[in-house]
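Tutorial handout. Part one gives the primary structure; part two gives the three-dimensional structure as tokens.
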Amino acid sequence: MVALVWPAFSATAAVKVAVTHPLLGDLVRQVGGGQVTVVDLLKPGGDAHHFEPTASDLRELRGAAAVFASGKHLENYLGKLADSMGEGVTIVEVGRTIPSLKLDASNDVFLCCPAHAKGGVDPHWWHSAENMARAARIVSDELVRIDPAQAAAYKQGGTATSKKMLALKSWAQQQMAAIPRGDRKLVTAHAAFGYLCKEYGFKFIPILGLSREEDYSPTYISEAVRVIKANGVRAVFPEDQANPKILREIVRETGVTLASPLIADGTSIGEGSTFEGMFRHNIAAIVEALQKKKAE
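Part two.
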């Protein structure tokens, strides 16, 4: 008699979830480990501000127990997504309970005219390591809810990931110590770095608003130049996926340094699609441009 050998299966199958942003995919994988299978809707190299899921994307979502979204109005398609997925699938806006930063000239983070810091909530909450630590706990809690059998693993993953994010915050604080307080002014094209500026005591001068493509006029440029000159700004920072034309124009007008590009939307191919890669890159670029030089 021939003995039947049954194929080996793991005691528990991985829970399928989806994410709307590469940085969330990175976070969920860290928290969930081997207990989760993650479907990325927005792929590295995509545009977080203009992405819309395709029919193919929606097919990939079949069987997902939850969708983790950035929130704060970054994904304007969440209502349609919920309708297409039907009942039983939770959409978790990870940024919902994280304190929002509003683009408003009365906010002391912004060192610019009202037209530059205009309207709306900044959705780029994941530029703060503290916020990412909080997000790790939010993801952990949701994974425990949808897969209680693996609760211990998710809690452990959430705690470990949160500690890692706070360690990155401490590292950044040590790096930023090389920048004199008076030079902690960050000039970028679009308003993506408010949470980072708030976390590390910078004043923020976003030349445009939340979008990379907002229109600007000669008067607008003139006002930006005036603000930069009046505040002794040392450098301006282009962004990895944005046209640097406006900043080059400002460099010509002011004579300040055009620094290395920052990763703004966390969707770059390579290091820019993980939080640690993006964060370390940005901190290094800022410190390199603004630190007190030995010759000074």
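Part three, for discussion. Residues 1-11 have pLDDT under 50 and may be disordered. The chain has two domains: 15-100+125-168, 170-290.
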